[in-house]
Amino acid sequence: MRELAVSGIPGTVTCRVLKLSRPPHHRWPVSPVTDSEVVEAHRANALLDAHPDDPEFGYRPLADEARDAGESMADRTAWRIASANWWCSAFGKK
């Protein structure tokens, strides 16, 4: 929105074309990303960095490795992040 405003396109036109209402547009620059989203992104990076080339590990060993790297989280949080990103172990339960 800011780039379009700098180029001279009015905000009302931009909101109408992008099908946005104006109040969320005005709230977004104040806090574009919440603190909890930043924490979750750091946790997801820690899980991904734990074993990038080894798909044999499930969420529990990855959470242990992330904790060893300094990113504290519960096993359930690691499961939720891994599940949301479709990261799964190469081996499943029968």
Explain how this protein is built.
The protein has helices spanning 2-6, 11-18, 22-27, 35-50, 59-68, 75-84. It is mostly helical. The longest helix has 16 residues, at 35-50. The model has no long low-confidence stretch (mean pLDDT 79).
Features of the shown structure:
mainly alpha
Short synopsis of the structure:
The chain is mainly α. The protein is 59% helix and 0% strand.
Q: Which segments are poorly predicted (pLDDT under 50) over 5 or more consecutive residues?
A: none
The percentage helix is 55-70%
Number of helix segments? 6
Query: What fraction of residues sit in β-strands?
Result: under 5%
Could you state the oligomeric state of the chains shown?
Answer: single chain
Q: Topology of this protein?
A:
Layout: H1 2-6, H2 11-18, H3 22-27, H4 35-50, H5 59-68, H6 75-84
